Prior knowledge:
Layout: H1 4-13, E1 17-22, E2 27-33, H2 37-50, H3 59-69, E3 70-71, H4 107-111, H5 115-128, H6 169-173
Antiparallel strand pairs: 1-2, 2-3
Helix pairs in contact: 2-3, 3-5
Amino acid sequence: MTSIKDKFKAALLTIHEQPLDYPEWDLTGALLREFTARERQYAQEAVSAEAGEADPDQVLFRAMLVQRCLTDPETGRPYADGRTNPSTGEPSIDPRTRTPIFTIEDIQDLADSRAIIFNKIWDDLLTLAALGPQAMFSSGAQDVGGERDAGAGAAGTGDAAVEDEGARPSDVDGGAQVDSKPKRKARNTA
């Protein structure tokens, strides 16, 4: 019989991955693995530290996660606990040990890449991590897709001028966001 601790440990330590397949851009052959709790925390802290009056997009931090999570399927070591793939009986590869296809030196290029492809990879990465596209960089705001990289406000509304300091979330976005943090001061957009 499996203990509750073992069940939780197995769920927490099983990192998911999926083949990256975008035939519309002739991009196949890599794996996308979900980021770990540590990677997500590092990115969240980096975004929080840079927030202030900076651009809320923070694409460089997303590029860092994409760099780490876009991996070569021909690499990696089996899980240390010896688990096997139930369909093949072969040792299961721990996705955290796979080699990224991009290097750290490529992060700036990723940040300056085509938004349509980068956003598709980013959205798929967040979906794989069981999040919505806005969940990491806002407090649960609705998904606004491409607005994120086109000057969207901190809550992803697409209108940074609407966010008044001290406004309740229901005043800003119709109550869709549950957040008790004060909003940034409105920027002068004129």
